[in-house]
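Open question from group meeting: does this chain pack into something compact, or does most of it stay loose? Before anyone orders reagents, we agreed to write out a predicted structure and look at it together. Recording both the input and the output here so the notebook holds the full record.
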Amino acid sequence: MITLEDAMEIVSAAQRKAAALGQPMNIAVADIGGNLIAHVRMDGAWIGSVDIAINKALTARAFDISTKDLATQSQPGAQFFGIHTSNGGRAGGIPLKRGGRVVGAIGVSGGSGEQDQAVEKIQDLTCLTDILPTGYHGCINAGVTTGSTVLISGAGPVGLAAAAAAQLLGAAVSVSDFNKERLAQAASFGCETINLSQGGTISEQLDQIIGVPEVDCAVDCVGFEAKERGGAEQPAVVLNQLMSATRAAGSLGRPCSASTDHAAPPRCT
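Structure tokens returned:
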């Protein structure tokens, strides 16, 4: 599943790559059903490329193959001959995968085929140079190490990256969120999960999972966009929950904080 948040992160990364290439572009992201989630036309991008970018994303999802490869396979004698008119033989549409499964697609138009493909592939670079290091930094900031028990709050892209990083550091990981699909993704690579929509305190659910109501360290991957159960914004709610669920002298990491204060992580007393 690709959420609007996921789609906007992909679009933002693609915009940065297009700016680096000096080529304004149209960028479109579709979900697993081929439905448009987000589209951006950068300043100066061709109006005529709006439909092309969207169609590239839909075509890439419809056939679960990049439009560049599809164009090759649609030539006379190839297996997809006859459908090449659906994308005009243009490169720039690539399926989006999570855990090896296609969950959507991105389409880009406005430059040459090579430029469009370069912007398309930015999703991989974004994971390696932005999301994963952010999650890893949160774990290091929280003091995660071999044998630690750690709670990751938020199972979005950064939260899942933090969970994977904590596992690499040798910790036993629990992840909390309201979103069932995100929790399922966390469970798919070995994390324990806490569904916040089921009621009860985090400490109570931790007690059921690990036998004690607190962890050695915790990582806030929600930040100042946190909301309470009713939906109202409550920036401090996650931080307060994590402090109550972390043992005395434990520490918290907060990579998603909007604050510019880079002081030492908060300690639980």
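Observations to bring back to the group:
Residues 131-253 form a domain with the Rossmann fold fold (CATH 3.40.50.720).
Strands lie at 26-31, 36-41, 93-98, 101-109, 149-153, 172-177, 192-195, 215-220, 246-253.
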